Amino acid sequence: MKLLRELLFPLIAVLAAFLVGALIVLLIKDDPILTYRLLIGSALSWPDGIGYTLFYATPLIFTGLAVAVAFRCGLLNIGAEGQLYVAAFAAAWVGITFGGVEGKSVANLSAWLLVPLACLAAILMGALWGAIPGVLKAKTGAHEVINTIMMNFIALALVSWLTQYHYKAQGDPILQTVPTGAAAHIPRLGTFVPGLPARIPLNIAFLLALVACALVYVFLWRTKWGYEIRATGANPAAAEYGGISTARQIVLAMAVSGGLAGMVGINEVLGYRYRYYDSFSSGVGYGFTGIAVALLGRNHPVGVIFAALLFGALQRGALFVDIFTTNVSKDLVAVLQALVILFVAAEALFRGRFNRFGLLKRSKI
Amino acid sequence: MNELFSIGLIYSTIRTATPLLLAALGGLYSERAGVINIALEGLMLAGAFTAAAVTHYTHNPVIGLAAGMGAGLFIAAIHALVCIRFKADQVVSGMAINILMIGVPALLSGALFESTGATPQIPLADLLRRAPVVIAFALVPVTWYVLYRTPFGLRLRAVGENPEAADAAGVSVAGVRYAGVLLSGALAAIGGAYLSIGQSSLFTRNMTAGRGFIALAALIFGKWRPVQTMLACLLFGFAEAVSIQMQGVVRIPVQFIQIVPYVLTMIVLAGFIGQSRAPRALGIPYQKEK
After folding, report:
1. B89 CB-side CA count, 13 A
2. Which residues of A touch B38 (CB under 8 A)?
3. What's the confidence (pLDDT) of residue A361?
4. Is 0.90 topped by the overall pTM?
5. From B94, which residue of chain A is nearest by alpha-carbon distance?
6. Mean pLDDT value of segment A158-182
7. Most CB contacts within 10 A, which of A73, A317, B144, B231?
8. Cis before residue A47, ω within 30 degrees of 0?
9. How far is the C-alpha of A256 from the C-alpha of A258, rounded, in Å?
């Protein structure tokens, strides 16, 4: 019964969002049924639809987990965007500096060393970028929301400066670094999944994302640290009274959150583009979509996977909506995302209606 | 080096500060009433797009500006409803509004003008180059007066500092908060409209480019007070103006000037140069005792 309640509510929010989305499609004089058929249908074909859906879902699992972990500590990390940028750059920097790239390298490590090192760099850089607003919150009480917003912009400026002035190939019109050494590539799933062509950029990072979900579950519900983070989020005063250092938990939660967001860099740099590409998280941005993913997934790793798959599918389907409808563009996906967040956030809107059936009682975290 | 700091730079500073000031003053009304408004970016985009589209059709920038304000009011009403009536997390709602306003203008622009990237160019004669600047700076003393010398201002501050006491004194907490959020929508929309039908002559995708967040930073840097907020906007506007003028002239990367507002805001928030204290009830939905 509890599980049903947990499932029912996000489902209603998604349906409500799609309904309003359909009205908007009607408003701009197009066919909502065709639009939704393209949006969902083209994400389910094999191998391209499913391959790309999983590829697009990968960064969203990471950022969804990142937001969820912070949420469990009562913090809102809207800085995943900045964290994933500095992390992706760090991964590329390791791949270039220790990957035997001519003129930029100090060493030429083998893949067995280079890949773990690049992953570690991404995670640690993301964790650092997340921990700073955590420390500021713990030490000075400065609101993490404002600081993470500010650090998003600082991150973007920082990596774009590094790219433009120090790591761009001479004469390259695109703002991107030189490619990393080939040893810093991680395999695409197409190289060993039968029927999946290797041109689809779905890579090992997707499996890593699933592992991260399991680890986050264990961390939050099976370790002392996770317990203390959740206690801090549920009731900071009570947690403090119970002997938990809430300041330390805030820093820890933000660092873990930032590290998870940073893992987007593994998918992007080591598994997909093999270099740092400026503003790669364009459109709405993986970090911001992560908020929608976490909210819809009820801040639970399993929920995060499903929500990320939904938004990954929408991102894939959006390309076809763009091409095959007359008036609707792929921007409908951003609108749907925003509507999902609004409906999940305004859950009181539904609770009032459904409460008399006892269906939507607020669940305890 | 000398020609950098010319009269041109002063004008340029005022022009770049104008949209920031309008959005920041808007944010001030919302936040002093206790509702966090990180949706300023989205509200500006709503104003910018609507003003450009309506001016294109009517050839009348005043109608365009009014329509832009209407769009800002409408979007702010969603934020207000979700935050005040349904007591949602105000940051989450604000973020959703920002994402919504990445999508909606592009979607409408694609349907109306067959380009999701930009609206059609508006003729030079149809632009509103001065009025928004005058409105912005005139609103500073007006806001000061409203905030500290009128009953509405007193209620606004009371609702943001101590809603229980305001409620006990017979003030409608929800009503005043609605007014604050709606005002923020109208003002931020003027700021956005100035970008599309004042500084340039069309709406382009995501043309606010983070100005809503800089305005929020200015509001915090200005300690939620009108005059200080104006000074913060001028400072951040100056940084932007300098970075525009310096492009290709001085060998300091523009990125370092771009981050000035963000770094300063973080320093102020941490209390290293003076305390910036938010309204006490900021971000807390008001639950009437039963």
Report:
1. 15
2. 145, 149
3. 43
4. yes
5. A342
6. 92
7. A73
8. yes
9. 5
**Does position A80 have pLDDT exceeding 70, yes or no?**
yes
Average pLDDT, chain B: 91
Q: How far is CA B116 from the centre of its chain?
A: 24
Average pLDDT over residues A341-363: 63
Query: In chain B, whose CA is at the least distance from the CA of A327?
Result: B111
Average pLDDT, chain A: 91
Alpha-carbon span A355 to A333, nearest angstrom? 30
* B70 vs B41: CA distance, rounded Å: 16
Contacts of B91 in chain A (CB under 8 A): 76, 78, 145
Q: Which of B135, B184, B177 is nearest to B152 (CA)?
A: B177
CB contact under 8 A, B102 and A342: no
Interchain proximity B108–A28, CB inside 8 Å: yes
Instruction: Kindly tell me the burial class for residue B284, based on how many C-beta atoms sit within 10 Å of its own C-beta (0-12, 13-18, 19 or more).
Output: middle
Using a CB-CB cut-off of 8 Å, the residues of chain A touching B106 are 329, 331, 334
Burial of A15-38, coded b for 16+ CB within 10 Å and e otherwise, reads ebbbebbeebbeebebbbebbbeb
A30 has a pLDDT exceeding 50 = yes
Beta-carbon separation of B269 and A145 below 8 A: no
